[in-house]
Amino acid sequence: MGKESGKVTSEREQSIVEKIASFDPGGVGAVNGNLFGFPHDYTHASTIVLGVPWDVTTSYQDGTCQGPEAILRASPQLDFYDFDHPDAWRQGIYMLPVPGWLLAENRRLRPDAIAIIHSAERGITPSDSSDLAAALARVNQGCRTMSRWVRSQTKTALQHHKKVIIIGGDHSVPLGALEALAQEYLSFGILHLDAHGDLRNAYEGFQESHASIMFNAMQLPQISKLVQVGIRDISHGEMALIDQSDGRIVTYLDTQLKQAAYAGQSWLQQCQDIVRNLPEHVYISCDVDGLDPKLCPHTGTPVPGGLNLEEVYCLWREVVRSGRRIIGCDICETGNHEWDGNVSARILYKLFCLMNMPTSVAGKCEAKGGD
What we know:
Layout: H1 2-22, E1 47-52, H2 67-74, E2 93-95, H3 100-121, H4 130-159, E3 163-168, H5 175-184, E4 188-193, H6 213-217, E5 223-231, H7 236-243, E6 249-253, H8 254-262, H9 267-275, E7 281-287, H10 309-321, E8 325-332, H11 338-355, H12 359-362
Parallel strand pairs: 1-2, 1-3, 3-8, 4-5, 4-7, 5-6, 7-8
């Protein structure tokens, strides 16, 4: 039995290697259930993608729990010549199957969260109702279970020397990945693209709200710097927290970036100024509502304004060109729509390329431009 099992494993290994060797990145996109239609499996991929189907605490429009599937469906439609790293596909990217139990848990808990949100809008809080208090406890426990799963999967991938990208789902989903990275790195920073500050403490009572991701992240002492870009919808309390952070949080408001451009400062110069705030190791957190809403109109909390994709790529490119290292990233708040999935799949591939760029190539990438 052992010999037979070993033979099957060996044959499967040979089959995967042969598929990778014969794969044509310029061919017809393969709809084979794999991200981008690539032939790689977990073992042969440099980068692992965790799809987290979760939008329990979303406070505006739900549906981003279907974001991972939307990205997966759209991904074979891309072409794979990346102007920064043309052969990145060879390094392999593999998406774990989206866990059905997590999506089922999301469906179970979402009505509890909606009841809490609607009650709060009428001035009724869980402290006023035992039913709401029980619902809040269920939601908070469910969110922690989700984060523990993300942390566990991320930790396992890191132990196998893989890079990890999280795709959501609402913006609460990367907390577990940040916790896992905090066990691997003594210090790192976050480059945060978003329309919102996400610095609220337990927004609407939810300890791991999508609006609290950066507040929760900043409780990790290993995160030495949070640099936020594109913020244009933020509360007084969040601004006070930024002001009181002694420079640990640096926020570039969308209006400030545009005013600088109107005054004649190029976007490249602004990107270089932004990147100077970051430490050597950088985690990129991309909420697609940080983009112009025309790009991902079905995101959970769209806001007018924002950045174009080439502006974002320029910023990320400067991170790599500066010699800093991208240690992980997430793409969150993708809506359940073909167009949103298409755009986010392109963002995912760009981040994969930049994460896997050899040091010798990174310093030259600005000469080639972006895609």
